[in-house]
């Protein structure tokens, strides 16, 4: 897919040039569930420019990604739905392989990426897909859509799902506003808006 190259809007941050607050954020990121694989790309590179915000944000993100009552298959599917709605290239790049490994069918991932209803997705994934579509387009969800998701996730899970959607909307905004580049060699997943 031919896409125009966007320029990253922030100065690149390297580990050897971190100040104390940035170093503390990086250490906090690596001490959490993401572990030593944390690099300064993606949203974390952006957070380094506002480390106090980054620390609070990464704590919320760690909870929503690793500690909710949703099984990883469902939370990763919800993240992909959000990434698609925002055409967040980096988010898609990071989470599509995780979603497939967690059990989301490759065909469902392809459909979401293409903006199609994932007809062969599991029933709980379809409920989440419809919930996400309705929430992002109408800024509300109907009683029927709410009840379908709540039937699968319960009250706690539904609250946590909305938290995941809100958090990854924020991540997508950060990625898109600052034109965070994909890793070297990766190609864009979505056409950039004109």
Explain this structure to me?
By secondary structure, the chain is mostly helical. 63% of the residues lie in helices and 0% in strands. The chain folds into 2 domains: 16-66; 72-177, AhpD-like (Up-down Bundle). It is built from 8 helices and no strands. It is globular, with a radius of gyration of 17 Å.
Features:
mainly alpha; 0% strand; AhpD-like; 2 domains; 194 residues; 8 helices
Please give the domain count: 2
Biggest sheet features = none
What is the general shape? Answer: globular
| Shape-level CATH architecture of the largest domain | Up-down Bundle
Name the structural class: mainly alpha
Distance between the termini: 15 Å
Helices and strands in order, then pairings?
Layout: H1 20-31, H2 42-47, H3 51-66, H4 72-86, H5 89-102, H6 106-114, H7 123-138, H8 143-177
Give me a quick take on this structure.
This protein has 194 residues and is an all-alpha fold. It has helices at 20-31, 42-47, 51-66, 72-86, 89-102, 106-114, 123-138, 143-177.
């Amino acid at each position: 897919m031919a896409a125009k190259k966007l320029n990253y809007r922030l100065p690149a941050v390297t580990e050897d040039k971190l100040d104390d607050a940035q170093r503390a954020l990086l250490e906090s990121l690596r001490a959490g569930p993401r572990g030593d694989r944390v690099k300064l790309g993606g949203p974390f590179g952006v957070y380094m420019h506002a480390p106090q915000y980054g620390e609070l944000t990464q704590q919320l993100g760690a909870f929503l990604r690793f500690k909710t009552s949703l099984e990883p298959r469902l939370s990763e599917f919800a993240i992909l739905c959000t990434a698609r709605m925002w055409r967040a290239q980096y988010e898609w790049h990071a989470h599509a392989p995780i979603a497939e490994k967690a059990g989301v069918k490759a065909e469902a991932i392809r459909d979401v990426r293409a903006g199609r209803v994932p007809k062969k997705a599991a029933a709980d994934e379809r409920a989440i897909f419809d919930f996400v579509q309705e929430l992002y387009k109408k800024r509300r969800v109907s009683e029927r859509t709410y009840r379908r998701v709540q039937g699968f996730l319960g009250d706690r899970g539904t609250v946590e799902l909305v938290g995941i959607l809100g958090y990854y909307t924020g991540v997508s905004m950060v990625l898109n506003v600052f034109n965070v580049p994909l890793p070297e060699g990766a190609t864009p997943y979505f056409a950039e808006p004109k």
